[in-house]
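Protocol step 4 of 6.
Sequence for Diaminopimelate decarboxylase (Aureibaculum algae) entered exactly as in the expression construct, tag removed. Do not edit the line below.
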Amino acid sequence: MDRKLLLSLAKKYDTPLYVYDADKIISQYERMTKAFSGVKNLKINYAVKALSNINVLKVFKQLDSGIDTVSVQEVQLGLKAGFAPEDIIFTPNGVSLEEIEQAKDLGVHINIDNISILEQFGQKYPETPVCIRINPHVMAGGNSKISVGHIDSKFGISVHQLPLILRVVENTGMRINGIHMHTGSDIYDVDAFLRATEILFTAAESFQDLESIDFGSGFKVPYKENDISTDIEELGKKLSKRFNEFCKSYGRELTIMFEPGKFLVSEAGKLLVHVNVVKQTTSTVFAGVDSGLNHLIRPMFYDSYHQIENISNPKGKERFYTVVGYICETDTLGANRRITEITEGDILSFSNAGAYCFSMASNYNSRYRPAEVLVKDGKDYLIRERETIQDLLKGQNLDLNF
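Step 5 output, structure tokens:
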């Protein structure tokens, strides 16, 4: 999306504003399918938690994608977006048996990540096939808060507990139709990822009725110029070859599955903000904007980097700024950044705002969440209205008298 389009959208819809490029989403999806064209059966399940607007889900529905969900509410969103139950996989963590039963009743695929629920579910519903999430004990991810495959992670069943898994399966008579792992986000070392897949291949040999192997995702996208990212083409070539070899030895053509979120939508998103004030202190020049950690928590939450551009003055002289929000708490969005000269009233654009940005937004400080716009085939669509005071009051009892 070019600068003029973004400026026109900021003027049309006001700021702060999330803007998503459907064409970029589609090209990323097609890039991944092409990378794994060497396998017979490929299923990509978009991770809904990355960006859950129902209109974005409809884009993936048009691509014949499946979806990966982590809550019954995401399952329900997927169904409303038109996905068939068989195209939805439910991969929760730490939820009750009751929530898993709700997902079962909706007819979606179940992925279980702990022994306790596996045993309970197997005793009650041995006829319902499930997938098992294995923790391979491989550290991956750009930050400890997004690394989920290490030995201290709450996610998955330890690969060292495989004998216990098999005992539960045998005792309950349940059927395991898939095996799954997810090591973490921001994976850029293809060989490290492939080593983790070998652990999953070994575990898969213990199950006789598999239909799929799900290798998760977490593929890294570039956040700045010349940034390191996952070479999806190299991974596709190497993993496809190994997967085909495994299917041959297993004696059956399985489906290779992935659940990318960030890889598909991160680069498609921009957050547009208005500069309220430029404030110079003894050591820093602050650019204060009409947003903050309530709309973009990632920089404060796990030190994520979002490139910031002054699209109102793209050719101006560069200066150093610390871009901060309007929340009454430290909410630094970018510290000591080289940005073309900023004046009050300018529009700044944050890149890589498609994944885990709006979906993690809140009403902290009683601020409204932004509007969302989708651009597809050169046309812009308002896919979520900006909130109002009525949204903040919804659900609150206004009639009480104390």
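Step 6, annotate. Residues 141-150 have pLDDT under 50 and may be disordered.
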